[in-house]
From TrEMBL:
It comes from Parambassis ranga. This is Ras-associating and dilute domain-containing protein-like. Residues 1-64 form the PDZ domain. Transmembrane segments: none annotated. Coiled coil: none annotated. SUPFAM superfamilies: PDZ domain-like. InterPro entries: PDZ, PDZ_6, PDZ_scaffold, PDZ_sf. It holds the Pfam family PDZ_6.
Length: 74
């Protein structure tokens, strides 16, 4: 599957993402702490997320078709 953007593939059990109960596989991350990921490659987006510090605020878009595609890959 080739889709542009940075998507949640899996929510790791007992992680901060799992504990907040808001992210699901297939969600597309649009921005991190107010910084847009649109146009960034995967590695730049990952670096932005990893360097964000203790507080992480994500803007995400939920897509049923992407969630189904991620489940089908598993």
């Amino acid at each position: 599957m080739k889709a542009k953007g940075i998507f949640i593939r899996e929510v790791v059990p007992d992680s901060p993402a799992a504990r907040c109960e808001k992210l699901v596989p297939g969600d597309r991350i649009l921005a991190v702490n107010g910084v847009s990921l649109l146009g960034l490659d995967y590695y730049s987006g990952r670096e932005l997320i990893q360097s964000s510090g203790d507080r992480l605020r994500l803007l995400v878009a939920r897509s049923d078709w992407m969630a189904k595609a991620v489940q089908a890959e598993s």
